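Q: Structure tokens for this one, please.
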Amino acid sequence: MMLMTAVAWIYVVGLMALTEPSVVAGVMTFVLYCVIPLSILFYLTGSRRRKRKAELKARALASADDKTKTADT
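A: Here is the predicted structure, written as tokens:
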């Protein structure tokens, strides 16, 4: 659902950028209203995903260490 909202926002801001009187103003509109806010939003909402991925990696390393310890003994 969030991805669909982001695509719609990109579309709206893209149309806003197209109506700007100059190319520089259009690029600045797109960057300031679309690229920066969406990158912040995706970074903040992705923190939970990154944390979960780090926990899974830590568990995998711990289980691999346990397997090597039992194989050594």
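A few notes: The chain has three helices and no strands. The helical segments are 2-18, 23-45, 47-72.
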